Amino acid sequence: MATKTIRNEEWKASVLAYDPNGGDKGGSDIRLIRDKIVRAREGGACADCGSDIQPGTLTRVQTGVDDTRIISIRTCQDCCDAMASFEKDMGEAMVARYNITREPPAQGESHE
After folding, report:
1. Measured in whole angstroms, how far is the alpha carbon of residue 55 from the centre of its chain?
2. The pTM is what?
3. Confidence of residue 105 (pLDDT cuts 50, 70, 90)
4. Which residue of 63, 67, 72, 93 has the smallest Cβ count within 10 Å?
């Protein structure tokens, strides 16, 4: 039986405490200017798993800027749940979410 996720202020704080880049900027000059949990008004793709973000669900929105543009990254509610559980499950849920975008190869094909 699956455990019901309680999405409260503690949940929001746990989601926002999760650093998707693990502290590594990856050589990027993007400066984070906003990081918050919002209710999605429209659909779109999750930056972490590629799933559709459903209107009305809670999402994490990170907005950053570099020298030439503003960048907005949206994360679906299921990935937010995985972020919130990161400390408890040592990242297992996040790994499972990342692997959603990796489809197994067709019969007779390889990933290479």
Report:
1. 16
2. 0.79
3. low
4. 67
